[in-house]
Amino acid sequence: MDTLVAQLDFAPTLLGLLNLSYESRFFGSDALSPSYQPRIFISNYQKLGMIRDGQLTVVKPVRDTARFNVDLVTGALEPTTAPTADAEKNDEATKAYYQGADLLFNNGGLKTPAIR
């Protein structure tokens, strides 16, 4: 592959390589699919980040945000201060993914449904 791929894309990609039909609640997707759009998540105890459309958005405490242009082949970062047209959408999308995952996890939304 000649692009960055997220760890959360591993299982869906492996299942795709095995040509297995499956139903899942993966947040990742098959990296070899023609419709694959890389979304790479990065986090630590205070900062949340997401790479999408060649831009890394890092959401920091106290409503602070940093942005970097990312070379999706080499992973090289270049800080950017000029907001892009999608910068605010990326900020909100980053928060939404993390908040959505937290909500699902804490309310049982990721459990396998009972088979009937």
Produce the secondary structure layout.
Blueprint: H1 10-17, E1 39-43, E2 48-52, E3 55-60, E4 64-70, E5 77-80, H2 87-106
Antiparallel strand pairs: 1-2, 2-3, 3-4, 4-5
Determine the CATH topology.
Arylsulfatase, C-terminal domain
Summarize the biggest pleated sheet.
Answer: 5 strands, antiparallel
Question: What is the number of domains?
Answer: 1
Strand order of the largest sheet: 1-2-3-4-5
Spell the H/E element sequence: HEEEEEH
From the coordinates shown, what is the CATH architecture?
A: 2-Layer Sandwich
Tell me, what is the CATH class?
Alpha Beta
Shape type: flat
Describe the structure.
- By secondary structure, the protein is α+β, with helices and mostly antiparallel strands.
- It has one domain: 2-Layer Sandwich (Arylsulfatase, C-terminal domain), CATH 3.30.1120.
- Helix content is 24%, strand content 23%.
- It is built from 2 helices and 5 strands; from the N terminus they run αβββββα.
- It has a 5-stranded antiparallel beta sheet, covered by helices on one side.
- A hairpin with a 3-residue loop joins β3 and β4 (64-70).
- The relative contact order is 0.14.
Question: What is the gist of this entry?
Answer:
This protein is of the alpha+beta class and 116 residues long. Helices cover 24% and strands 23% of the residues. The longest helix has 20 residues, at 87-106.
